[in-house]
Automatic annotation (TrEMBL):
A cellular-component GO term for this protein: membrane
Membrane topology recorded in Swiss-Prot or TrEMBL: Single-pass type I membrane protein
Location of this chain's protein in the cell: Membrane
Span of the signal peptide: 1-25
Domain Phytocyanin, residue spans: 26-126
Keywords from the UniProt entry: Copper, Disulfide bond, Electron transport, Glycoprotein, Membrane, Metal-binding, Signal, Transmembrane, Transmembrane helix, Transport
BP GO terms, sorted: response to symbiotic fungus
Designated name of the protein: Phytocyanin domain-containing protein
Residue spans crossing the bilayer: 136-155
Keyword Repeat: no
Domain of life: Eukaryota
Length: 156
């Protein structure tokens, strides 16, 4: 009987760890079911979403027709890029958001950005304040503490 509360605590701690890892890395499929394609309003798609450092952007598209080019703000406005820009062309590309601030992506195929809205800009915010990845370690520490306590209680 005495072992029941610690077991429940351990379960709660495990759930918290799982939840925190989910919160740490959200995956955003650009355009949702529509993916990365012509004439979709990516500005509207991004509007109600909060992007954070550690999240992933997933670009799904037909790589015989499109690609994804990481550009800067000026290039975004002009729908232009140079050979120095990073171009993704797998058709299933994942971009991990590593830093805060504005990010810009366009399709590099002629007219797709300028005439068909294949352009996405997002503003990446800092990692969620709690539970942050740095606190995951202390959470793990307290989890192992709870587990040891639970095991001790069972075998006592
Ligand atoms: Cu395109």
């Amino acid at each position: 009987m005495a072992s029941a509360p610690p077991t429940r605590l351990a379960f709660l701690a495990i759930s918290m760890v799982l939840l925190s890892s989910v919160a740490m890395a959200a995956d955003f499929v650009v355009g949702g079911d529509q993916g990365w394609k012509l004439d979709f309003d990516y500005e509207e798609w991004a509007q109600d979403k909060v992007f954070r450092v550690g999240d992933n952007l997933l670009f799904n598209y037909d790589n015989t027709k499109h690609n994804v080019v990481k550009v800067n703000g000026t290039q975004f406005q002009n729908c232009s890029f140079t050979p120095e820009n990073e171009i993704l062309s797998n058709g299933k590309d994942t971009i991990t958001l590593k830093t805060e601030g504005k990010k810009w992506y366009i399709c590099g195929k002629p007219t797709h950005c300028a005439d068909h809205q294949m352009k996405l800009t997002i503003n990446v915010q800092a990692e969620a304040p709690a539970p942050a990845p740095s606190s995951a370690h202390s959470l793990m520490a307290s989890l192992s503490g709870v587990l040891i306590f639970a095991i001790a209680a069972i075998f006592a």
